[in-house]
């Protein structure tokens, strides 16, 4: 009953007029961003973070806005996947498999409605799971010592991104690069300046938010310049109103996809892409009796959509309770929390109950808003997709600049942002995932502090790192994940995916 | 080939990183010092980059000559935007940056000009005036 009363307080916070406004606005903006080809939740949240700072929103309202944008992007990713066969983000790749064929058959409205309802089911399931399990995990996490946290960080770095099928060595290298970038600046415990090369501008290290906007938003611009902008052709709209019978066909698949997606979401590093892939393959295995999957089967639309939305909710659990994000977007949200001077982790539930429960309640409301927004606004979203890339992308650049400039007021940071943009582009070209870089930059300091704390307790003996049973379990899990990702990347026919979530 | 090059780059970076860490010593306080963590991070990076040089698996495909030129021009615009934002001001630099990027992305000139002419003051009004984010309308060169 403890949870129920906390949740009620949360609803009281989320229902404040400013927060309701942010939920509706965030859902709307998120759906739009998610629907734009190439821009996913990571970009969406990254572009908006500087703005939330600049507006001076309090921590709870900022997180509510970002969460609404996050859920909105996950919903929106399916729109361009179904209508244009261009996934708005990585998890939406699975939705193109059956969604686009449905649209080609003139059933675009059906497909959009099925995916909208499936997203709602998946996200609601995950939010309920978050309500129930996050406080439990937070209680357990109080027993974690410095060595256990160090193990947890190792697990986050070893597993994030590695599971999607790119070269695991590169994922690890990307994480190490992030950790290296994270050590730039004054060492917090001794005050020694590291890797600053005498520049005072670098004494505070790299601002993770400046790095994020550069890595994700600016690198995207360079990708768009590879070829002259192409325009996708819209499919015939067909029926305007979805048929209820078709929506019903996807319900079973949505329920199964939700459970699988949620589990995939909790695992650090797996995230929404794995949720979508696993839900789709599982559904195909149990339901595809006539070989209709891939030709426009409603269940093939429902399963991955439920899966990816459930995974996005699940990924919030390790982020809030352990401070270890389960996906790229939650890593970005973690950056936001840290920048607001709020330390995610087991004590978050005790120290900032308003924030946590306000956020959880906002997720319930955001889901409802998205369902209501999504069904009637489908026509409008398709029209925005018709806007030319040359009009949209330069605006993204201008908004990134004004957002970063408004929080730092330093041209130096804008230059750093451009540098990260070029770095992000080159790394993505070379198939290095960007998410581990961000994670390294973000978590490096905590990882280092925990390592040094553990080592100073033991007087410098590294054995302390593998003495606690919790740490040993975490290392065993890490080894299992690494084995799995190696196997997935070597398996013939592995689904090639862009490296971020 | 690109895997070998990126392996080499990371090898040089990580070696330099570990080598520099030797200079980071603290006389008192922390017995382990500020050099431990860079080594914990740098040494695995050296090993992984060597492995990438020896066993490359991927070769990146870059844009053609035109694409690379467009990308270089875009980077020049982005750097110019960052350097000139303060001296010239938000509205003129944003106008130029949006126009330049739109043209690079294949906008018809008139439409690109219109977009930039509407967006630059529009963003200023929206964010500075309506939402209260302080942005320099005109830069230090004009005041």
Automatic annotation (TrEMBL), chain A:
Spans through the membrane: 20-39, 45-71, 111-134, 140-160, 172-193, 205-225, 355-375, 387-408, 414-442, 462-488
Keyword Cytoplasm: no
Keywords: Membrane, Transmembrane, Transmembrane helix
Recorded superkingdom: Bacteria
Keyword Membrane included in the entry's annotation: yes
Record-linked InterPro entries: DUF112_TM (IPR002823)
All residue ranges annotated as the DUF112 domain in the record: 20-439
Pfam family, one: TctA
PANTHER family, sorted: TRICARBOXYLIC TRANSPORT PROTEIN
Record protein name field: Tripartite tricarboxylate transporter TctA
Organism for this UniProt entry: Paracoccus tegillarcae
């Amino acid at each position: 009953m403890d949870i129920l009363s906390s949740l009620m307080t949360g609803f009281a916070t989320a229902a404040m007029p400013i927060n309701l406004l942010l939920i509706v606005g965030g859902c709307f903006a998120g759906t739009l961003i998610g629907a734009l080809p190439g821009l996913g939740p990571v970009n969406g949240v990254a572009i908006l973070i500087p703005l939330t700072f600049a507006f001076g929103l309090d921590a709870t309202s900022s997180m509510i806005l970002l969460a609404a944008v996050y859920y909105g992007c996950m919903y929106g990713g399916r729109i361009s996947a179904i209508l244009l066969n261009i996934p708005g983000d990585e998890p939406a790749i699975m939705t193109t498999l059956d969604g686009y064929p449905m649209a080609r058959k003139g059933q675009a409205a059906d497909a959009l409605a099925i995916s909208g309802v499936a997203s709602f089911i998946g996200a609601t399931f995950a939010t309920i799971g978050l309500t129930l399990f996050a406080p439990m995990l937070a209680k357990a996490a109080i027993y974690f010592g410095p060595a256990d946290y160090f193990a947890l960080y190792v697990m986050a770095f070893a597993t994030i991104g590695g599971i999607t099928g790119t070269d695991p060595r590169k994922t690890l290298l990307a994480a190490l690069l992030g950790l290296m970038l994270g050590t730039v600046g004054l060492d917090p415990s001794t005050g020694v300046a590291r890797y600053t090369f005498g520049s005072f501008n670098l004494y505070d290290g790299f601002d993770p938010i400046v790095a994020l906007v550069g890595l994700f938003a600016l690198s995207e611009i360079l990708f768009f310049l590879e070829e002259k902008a192409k325009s996708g052709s819209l499919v015939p709209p067909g029926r305007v109103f979805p048929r209820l019978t078709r929506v019903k066909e996807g319900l079973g698949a949505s329920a199964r996809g939700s459970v699988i997606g949620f589990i995939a979401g909790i695992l650090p590093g797996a995230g929404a892409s794995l949720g979508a892939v696993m839900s789709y393959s599982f559904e195909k295995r149990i339901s595809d009796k006539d070989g209709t999957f891939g030709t426009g089967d409603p269940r093939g639309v429902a399963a991955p959509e439920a899966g990816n939305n459930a995974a996005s909710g699940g990924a919030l659990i390790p982020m809030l309770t352990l401070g270890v994000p389960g996906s790229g977007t939650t890593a970005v949200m973690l950056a936001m929390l840290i920048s607001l001077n709020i330390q995610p982790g087991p004590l978050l539930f005790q120290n900032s109950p308003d924030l946590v429960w306000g956020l959880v309640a906002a997720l319930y409301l955001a889901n409802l808003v998205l369902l209501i927004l999504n069904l009637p606004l489908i026509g409008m979203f398709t029209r925005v997709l018709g806007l030319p890339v040359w009009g949209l992308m330069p605006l993204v650049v201008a908004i990134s600049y004004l957002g970063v400039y408004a929080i730092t007021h330093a041209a130096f940071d804008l230059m750093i942002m451009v540098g990260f943009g070029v770095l992000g582009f080159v790394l993505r070209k070379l198939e290095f995932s960007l998410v581990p870089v961000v994670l390294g930059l973000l978590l490096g300091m905590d990882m280092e502090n925990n390592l040094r704390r553990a080592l100073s307790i033991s007087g410098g003996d590294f054995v302390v790192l593998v003495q606690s049973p919790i740490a040993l379990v975490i290392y065993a899990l890490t080894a299992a994940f690494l084995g799995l990702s190696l196997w997935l990347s070597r398996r013939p026919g592995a689904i090639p995916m862009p490296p971020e979530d | 080939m690109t895997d070998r090059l990126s392996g080499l780059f990371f090898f040089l970076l990580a070696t330099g990183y570990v080598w520099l860490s030797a200079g980071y010593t603290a006389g008192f306080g922390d017995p382990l010092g500020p050099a431990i963590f860079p080594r914990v991070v740098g040494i695995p990076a050296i090993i992984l980059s060597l492995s990438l040089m020896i066993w490359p698996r991927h070769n990146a495909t870059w844009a053609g000559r035109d694409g690379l030129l467009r990308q270089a021009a875009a980077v020049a615009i982005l750097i110019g935007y960052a350097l000139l934002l303060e001296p010239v001001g938000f509205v003129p630099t944003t106008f130029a940056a949006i126009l330049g990027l739109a043209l690079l992305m294949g906008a018809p000139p008139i439409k690109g000009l219109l977009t930039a002419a509407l967006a630059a003051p529009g963003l200023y009004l929206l964010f500075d005036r309506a939402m209260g984010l302080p942005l320099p309308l005109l830069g230090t060169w004009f005041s």
